[in-house]
Amino acid sequence: MPPYNAVTKHITLPDGRQISLETGKLAKFADGAVVVRLGDAMLLATVVSQPSSRPDVDFLPLSVDYQEKFGGAGKIPGSFQRREGRLSDYEVLVSRLVDRILRPMFPKDYHYEVQVMITLISADKDVQPDALAALAASAALSVSDIPFAGPISEVRVARIDGQLQINPKTSDIERADIDLIVGATIDSVAMVEGEMNEVSEEEMVEAIAYAHEAIKEQVRVQQELGQAVEKSHVKREYPKYDENDDLKQRITEAVYQKAYEVAKSGNTSKAGRKESFGAIKKPLLEELQAENPELDLKMFGRYYGSAEKKAIRDMMIKERTRLDGRQLTEIRPIWSEVNYLPGAHGSALFTRGETQSLTSVALGTKLDEQIVDSAMVSGYNKFLLHYNFPAFSTGEVKPNRGPGRREVGHGNLAMRSIKKVLPGEDENPYTIRVVSDILESNGSSSMATVCASSMALMDAGIKLKAAVSGIAMGLVQDKETGEYAVLSDILGDEDHLGDMDFKVTGTEKGIVACQMDIKIQGLSHEILTKALHQAREGRLHILGEMNKTISAPAADLKPHTPRSTKILVDKEYIGAIIGPGGKVVQQIQKDTNATITIEEKDEKGHVYIYTSNADDMAAAVGRIRGIAATPEVGETYSGTVRSIQAYGAFVEFMPGKDGLLHISEVSYDRLPSLEGVLTVGQEVKVQLVEVDKKTGKFRLSMKSLMPKPEGYVEPAERPERGDRPERGDRPDRGPRPDRGPRPERGERPERFNR
Description:
- By secondary structure, the protein is an alpha+beta fold.
- α1 packs across α2 and α8 (about 405-420) crosses α9.
- The termini are far apart.
């Protein structure tokens, strides 16, 4: 018998594939550990919570890390150390997917450090592990004694060939026009993230609802798994807050109405609102400390924050207005500018309210592509979008430690939005890097990044299919009454105090990307639908403001932008373009100051050419086309005499292509030889008059380009052998005369004696 007692449950997907959940076999020292398997893909999720908390912590210190083991995919890492290092951007994004749905599911007063680790220990090229990560984490929590309001789960829902599918195969996802990760409890949706091809709000709601049905089954199976593990039956006890009901009531009575009035005043300045709320807090704190020098400041802060938050939320629901005086659907004032940075290849400055993005575009060559080396994917990426959030954008002082998880997540959302409207590779041979630097931030900086990126790319002359705008939607909901307010274009304070941050991006035609985070444990279908339709109104308004600055891509690239083009050639010409040892392509680059890269793809040669100006581009393109062009009968070429024979000359009329110029085709005069007529190295004009169908050899002519002499008569052409009559069709010539017996071979007279 094995030294463990494993428990396994199974989930059946709509297409018949099975997901297995197994616990009790691996990582038994963790508070909870589960292995999730679909096909050959296996994820190990472990969860551990510290038994004690630090006294200065008044939040949930939750960390979620997703990592892929290269060995599980049969690969060796390409890094110098040849081992897994810090999490890649993709691993950070998957970690965020799980974190955002798990965090609201813990008790608000649970302040014990929790670490969730999800590891891809075996890979399957047809299974996307990001759709299984949250299921694995939730299952690990479900078999532990850690307090948790789950189970939850996440699935990928994709519309492929018009049909919605749950966790489709990797090979099918490329054809999807909807690709969403949806997270939910058994009752309501809690997280959405993904991209779409300009779909309607109704189509998106349909996909989310379809995903939720699949999640309900996954939650039910997790409940069965938890019931089968005795450890999870009783959740651990932990000390609750010390409460002082008298102090709480006094603070609430002193704060609520004053905070309500400040919130209702409609102060448009973030600093002004902060000062007004501070004018309530400071004197109250001084009064209470005077009465009790040993006042618990953490308790005071908790009660004050709760009273202020309730006053602001109640005001928005009852008055149907906002902290800055706007109506629920009103968008902050917008102004923008393009071509702000003269040294960039494209730039835009986008400001909405107190949020501002300065975005630049740099266009590079194929050599600038990003190398992608992960356990699941290896290749290249030619579109990069980076988001930076310096501390000064919020008036703070913080060390600059490079991009954190928030920056990676916001940049990825903007990247997915813009990627949907980029031109195809044939229209855009550039590697593109877009950088958004947030200079001011008071809510929705990621959506400002989407708008600024769209405008900067159009300023750069990139032929976007359509402009993209984005908006962040908020929610304030009263749990007791069920009343709620959906807010368009939320402020930073509304994000902090509200229940939802739902970012939606799209073109005039429809949605291209979204990301929804909520702080409550679920969202009703009614609120989700209302938020999406309200978001559409806001997006179209923002697009209208953007169009006032730039409504179409620039007609041409900036003068200092490197020129780039791509030429498709038959693959048999790749060797001729490169030449022996790269001699030909190196000479072209030297002569034209171009950078040339070549790759074979789809049975074609893809030749990428980059130059700093139009003249060099024309020269490089001409050289490449000259090598790869197919000779056409009847066309005239400038050629060079390479050798002279008694019967004619061989002329190189295209790079790497020689043809025979017969002596009879040099002139209308009959020439005894070519001596004194042509010389090796001489430049001549020739016409291609024939390509031999069997041998592929070329026949050239000079005289066909000359005027015919007066009275010139073409010599009679000998009939082609194929035109001669068949032997059986020849006319009867009568009997052959009798020539007598043939002499013996040795008796034949010598020819010279005849």
